Amino acid sequence: TRRGADARTIGDALPRAPQPFVSHRTHVMAALGSAMRATTILPSARAFAGRKHAKKAQVSTVTRAASAEKAGPKIVEVAAAVDHNDLLPEGLYCNAHYQTTRRKTRTVTIGNVKLGSDHPIVRQTMTTSDTRDVEATVAEVIKCADAGAEMVRITVQGMQEAKACKVIKETLMAKGYTTPLIADIHFAPKVAMMVAECFDKIRVNPGNFADGRKTFEEKLYETDEEYNEELEMIEETFTPLVLKCKERGVAMRIGTNHGSLSARTLSRYGDTPAGMVESAFEFARICRKHDYHNFVFSMKASNPLVMVQAYRLLAHEMWKLGWDYPLHLGVTEAGEGEDGRMKSSIGIGALLLDGLGDTIRVSLTEASHLEMEPCTRLRDLGMDACEKKIGVEKFDETARDFKSFGRRESQLPVQKEDDAIDLRNVLHRDGSVLSAVTPEMLASEDPFYRDLGAKLAVGMPLRDIATSDSIILREIPKPDDEKANRSIRRLQEIGVGVLAPVDALAKTPVANAIAMVAAKDAATATIPDCAARVAVVIDGTESEEEIVAALATDPVMCLIATAPGVSRLHASRRVFEWMHRAGSAVPVIHNMQFDASAEKDTVVIESGAQAGGLLCDGLGDGVVVEHPGVPLSYLRTTSFGLLQGSRMRNTKTEYVSCPSCGRTLFDLQEVTAAISERTGHLPGVAIAVMGCIVNGPGEMADADFGYVGGAPGKIDLYVGKEVVKRGIDNDTACDELIQLIKDHGRWVEKEVEEEEAVAA
Prior knowledge:
Layout (H helix, E strand, L loop, with lengths): L1 E2 L4 E2 L11 E2 L4 H6 L7 E2 L66 E3 L2 E3 L6 E5 L7 H14 L3 E5 L3 H16 L6 E5 L3 H7 L5 E4 L19 H25 L2 E7 L5 H7 L3 H17 L5 E6 L3 H18 L6 E2 L7 H16 L6 E2 L11 H17 L15 E2 L4 E2 L20 E6 L1 H5 L2 H6 L3 E3 L2 E3 L7 E4 L8 H12 L3 E5 H6 L5 E6 L12 E8 L5 H8 L5 E4 L7 H14 L6 E6 L6 H16 L6 E5 L5 H14 L8 E4 L10 H12 L6 E5 L14 E7 L2 E6 L2 E8 H14 L17
Parallel strand pairs: 7-8, 7-14, 8-9, 9-10, 10-11, 11-12, 13-14, 17-20, 17-26, 20-21, 21-22, 22-23, 23-24, 24-25, 25-26, 27-28, 28-29
Antiparallel strand pairs: 1-16, 2-15, 3-4, 5-6, 18-19, 29-30, 30-31
Helix pairs in contact: 2-3, 3-4, 5-7, 6-7, 7-8, 8-9, 9-10, 9-17, 9-18, 10-17, 16-17, 17-18
């Protein structure tokens, strides 16, 4: 069975309107979520097909000025300083696809912090306290700063909060803390003007800054004139803040969120990366019109794939326009624990390894100062990669298109007539997890089966939804190790593959095993008779000729286990390019090996950044993570978390959980934990847990059900983007959510695990 999907274009060169597309339930839709979920996304006028006088809507032509912008033109006419044809070729979004070098940017000044490519990547976080509680907010900022935060964002939703901000700033300064403070603004231009008097930076959301208290209703525009009328209103509303920030030396972040695009943008682009970029550019053009350049961009989404696509498109479009503004990176609503860290590592890490990003925030549903540890690890990973310029020799890349997403097409194992056992399930169509095991693990039997994710029935292992698909034997059990060899046979009987090095199999045969052969030796290696198949191991130092020769041996899979000092991201891209040229559909497994000194968080961060950066491009069919000092169960669940975070294989409930802020209307950490405890056994179900609805139902774009703070002590429940129950008491809201899931046929009862296995 072949798997994969045709690429779907998700962002043409702006400001052209994106081409309409039809999305089917494919790997593409599953990966990119709501950005590809609608059955049809069209320019707005086409939605008027049933009206007699509908006019086709098109994005207005933007005049590209050959010289500096003048103050007079309408914003819709303000664009680049140079013609895009004089800049980079189509398809480029970073300095080099084969090496990590930092994207060159201007320097933006935020208080006493310099931000841009000439400076280290800046770490930041956001407070969760009520901004009106000056004492609590000051204490939280100090705790964050002491933990390593170089900037701290504070929500400012009204005038009372804005007044408190002045006292917060003064109190911190009196205590000797000069950490720049950032005001998080939604809906409130007047509040932004007030807080710009005392804070160092203003974050504005183009999706709701000028809209007032949005109703989130859908809007349709029949003509360009109607579409651009609102742009003039946006300019009128936003310009005073631009002038204020310019006058006072205050910085700004134009921060687009995938889930909170304006109705105007959605009508033209849908909730796509192209819409996110154009939404930010509309505000940037106003800044540039007034010669204000002390700003940065962000393109956040809860789906790491959408987030990566949007930032890449943003970087590409800025290069075409000759813009050099810094980037703030973040995956919004990432959640908590390992899952939140994994999602953030996939999105942020993938971009950092391409040299993109100048400041980062890891958004976790945890205490704000706890974000700094993973934030620091990611900062160090990005800075180290840029300083060392990790990479491989230059090569031409033709197969990967950053504007499109499609899983690479691969060939799953096929059963042969003379096969003694069923080998069709050694890999999974949605993404495979392999686990490296030892003879001691195998000999423990029942505990080992549980660590491998198998169910037990009277002592016999059975495959479950998150059972490892294959195991790797770095050391083969001795022939007289009865328990270990029995475990191997039992796993093979339920379709779990068994891989071992070819030399080890020659010395100690294992019936129906898969022999692991180095790519450089594959063409000449002698395969033991006990081996049912061959797996090629690639270390990233091979030539194209050696890779092609290895592929000619008809391997069941390739494992990329990069040699020490070889950049996994760049070497793997090169391997995939060579496989594409060779027309190979052999599945590829990313094999990450850590030494005993690596901490658990390092495993999560580096696995997410390196393998996730490839899986975001649809490059790879599974993972195996090895660490001699970390429990097998942890490595397995981390691997499945990596696949789920990369929008491949769902093995547990997906949570879209906001990190909390001063707007939150309930104890987000406590409620998220309670919901997770009761609903965590629903693979394929996505639940959004949101402290408030400030950014609209769109923040739940990837969720099936939503649990949202509507008022103090009250919860609103959503199905998709539609509210179905309002004003439910906190005490009963979790029960109501579960009933809602049941009403929609998505509930299953938890299975009771066998407490005691009976020996077979």
